[in-house]
Amino acid sequence: MAFRDGGFVWTVNGERPKIEAQTRNKGVHMWKWIRRGLLLAVLGFVSFAIYDKYRAGYWSMPQLQDDEYPVSFKTGFRAIVTVAEPHDPTHANTGQFYRSLRLANSDRRYFGFPLDVPYWAEDAWSYCTPPTDEENRQFFASRSGEELQNLRGMRFDGICTINADGEEIPRGLLFSAPRL
């Protein structure tokens, strides 16, 4: 009768320990660690994707209509934009969790400029409506030359507001520029 202790085989009848070569299991042992490393990498990637969706506010997003698309910025500004006809029709009927304004209109880059709001409204989703001609003129007329220079080539896509008990609170402005 024998039992192993590391690389030695100890026998019960008092013989000297013999060293056995452990070469036949080294390949199996290496692949076990490679599989563990790959599993850890996949778990890390999935965890980051879930955390990214959490930071973007997708877990607290209201129910979307068919023509509404969410967009979220690193500043905490979250908006739901109504798009009549997306440029990429493959994203037109996707599920709510996978829908994104950046994917639906991949030929444009979106920029959100948040406005000051009460602390309780910072994480709320706002709804964007296209500016009227009068709002568009007022906005560009109230800007200085340097600000207008930075906005050159951009399109004023929306004024985003939060509805709090019937009161419209301006949350931010949405601009887009062609993706070059």
Instruction: Provide the number of structural domains.
Output: 2
Segments where pLDDT lies below 50 for 5+ residues? none
Order of helix and strand elements from N to C terminus: EEEHEEHEEHHEE
Largest sheet strand order: 4-5-7-8-9-6
Indicate the overall shape: elongated
Regarding quaternary structure, what we see is single chain
Largest sheet: 6 strands, mixed
Q: How much helicity do the residues have?
A: 25-40%
Which structural class matches the secondary elements? alpha+beta
Description:
The chain is of the alpha+beta class and 180 residues long. It folds into 2 domains: 2-56, no CATH class; 58-178, no CATH class. It has 4 helices and 9 strands, in the order E-E-E-H-E-E-H-E-E-H-H-E-E. The protein has helices at 26-56, 101-104, 133-141, 145-150, and strands at 2-5, 8-11, 18-19, 68-72, 78-82, 108-114, 125-129, 155-164, 167-178. Strands 4-5-7-8-9-6 form a 6-stranded mixed sheet. Strands 1-2-3 form a 3-stranded antiparallel sheet, with no helix packed on it. A hairpin with a 2-residue loop joins strand 1 (2-5) and strand 2. The model has no long low-confidence stretch (mean pLDDT 79).
